[in-house]
Amino acid sequence: MTQSPVWHPYAHLLTQQAAPKVVGGEGARFRLENGETLLDATCSWWCMIHGYSHPRLVAAIKAQADTLCHVMLGGLTHEPADRLARELVRITPTGLNHVFFSDSGSVGMEVAMKMAVQYYHLRGKPEKHRMLSLMKAYHGDTSGCMAVCDPEEGMHSLFAGYLPRHHFAPAPTAPYDADPETVAQDLAALRAALERHHHEIAALLMEPLLQAAGGLNMTSPEYLKGARELCDEFDVLLVFDEVATGFGRTGKLFAADHAAITPDIMVLSKGLTGGYLGHAATLATDRVHDAFIGDSPLHAFMHGPTFMGNPLACRVALESLAVFEEENYLDKIARLNRILRTELLEESALHRHPRVRDVRVLGATAVIEVQDATALQGVAAFARTRGVWLRPFGRWLYTMPAYITPEADMRHIAQVMKDWFR
Ligand SMILES: *Cc1c(COP(=O)(O)O)cnc(C)c1O
């Protein structure tokens, strides 16, 4: 058989194995060409929150396809985009009243950063054109996003010479339920970075509560509240990248909800369409939006992805949200959380295993962090023989299951993760 011309992401071309061919899927499982089914512990990079072949999502796409597959959003609008924007304003923290659509999480973050820079330009502070990001951050793979990923461990270090330079504060270290003193240390580090550089910083970017692809680092809602106060004090916009945390992953609809705060800009993608089509939304408050109202050519926001507001994507996003609310997904997430806590934290000796550094659970997310990456060599193949699709990266063996994962299947995923350390 000749080799496929498909170039796989993050793959080492010399050592990669032939990729199994997926031919379909139902619920939490996808099915391979050879008849094997695998329980997806990652819900396909955290986006397939309803699992595969959800009848309502599939029907929504088909119905929209019969009406209107695509039309430009430049100077035109349509019902799915308009309705989705209204719904996103309704469900996100109070004050995020404006929605800019794009086609992926990375582009949604590029839009957020451009908005922040232009905001200060329009306010007469063009020198505020850099970002403050956090170590362990991951905000996407495009150039603008690579420049605000962790510069050392963030998998893009080879591009350092090519990327613009921004500022970085230490990653938060206080866990979700940390006492105030521990959080205060993290906030002191953030304050120090702002004191030094605020005159040139447009926005503080963070993945609130859960730094995902940079190592599943979890922190306290108090850190978000403190960051909100610091941004106000130093006249810096607060940007929440909720591409991974949005739509229930941390146990509330949005991570910002744990702290009851409103960021100035918030980015959504992954779970937005239930994973069924690529799309993203960058939301902004009146304060940000209204700065763009003016009569100079510099007031227009010069961004416009071809597929922004795609009707198929907007329609399936509306259906995804309807299912999420009607079927009480937050309760399903709470049930998955209880299983993960019981299996991996409470009734397990995992944290005492010599190769394990830490075990963390938040919402429908659990991670076993090991001392060094070699401890995870072979775990994907091991899981596959037990019917589970796990895809660890670096030192992190994690699950972010679809929210419809049955409880017995959730227990099985946790069991396979534990058994690897037997
Ligand atoms: C996945 C991810 C992105 C990038 O989204 P893409 O759709 O892959 O471009 C950005 N930020 C966070 C937090 C992510 O998890």
From TrEMBL:
Pathway: Cofactor biosynthesis; biotin biosynthesis; 7,8-diaminononanoate from 8-amino-7-oxononanoate (SAM route): step 1/1
N6-(pyridoxal phosphate)lysine carried by residues: K270
InterPro entries reported for this sequence: Aminotrans_3, Aminotrans_3_PPA_site, BioA, PyrdxlP-dep_Trfase, PyrdxlP-dep_Trfase_major, PyrdxlP-dep_Trfase_small
Enzyme category, top tier: transferase
Catalysed transformations (reactions): (8S)-8-amino-7-oxononanoate + S-adenosyl-L-methionine = S-adenosyl-4-methylsulfanyl-2-oxobutanoate + (7R,8S)-7,8-diammoniononanoate
Binding site for substrate: W45, Y138, K270, G304, R391
Binding site for pyridoxal 5'-phosphate: G105, S106, D241, P305, T306
Record keyword Transferase present: yes
GO molecular function: adenosylmethionine-8-amino-7-oxononanoate transaminase activity
Location relative to the cell: Cytoplasm
Cofactors required: pyridoxal 5'-phosphate
Keywords on record: Aminotransferase, Biotin biosynthesis, Cytoplasm, Pyridoxal phosphate, S-adenosyl-L-methionine, Transferase
Its EC number(s): 2.6.1.62
Swiss-Prot/TrEMBL site (Participates in the substrate recognition with KAPA and in a stacking interaction with the adenine ring of SAM) positions: Y10
HAMAP family: BioA (MF_00834)
Subunit structure as annotated in this protein's UniProt entry: Homodimer.
Role summary: Catalyzes the transfer of the alpha-amino group from S-adenosyl-L-methionine (SAM) to 7-keto-8-aminopelargonic acid (KAPA) to form 7,8-diaminopelargonic acid (DAPA). It is the only aminotransferase known to utilize SAM as an amino donor.
Protein name as catalogued: Adenosylmethionine-8-amino-7-oxononanoate aminotransferase
Organism for this UniProt entry: Billgrantia antri
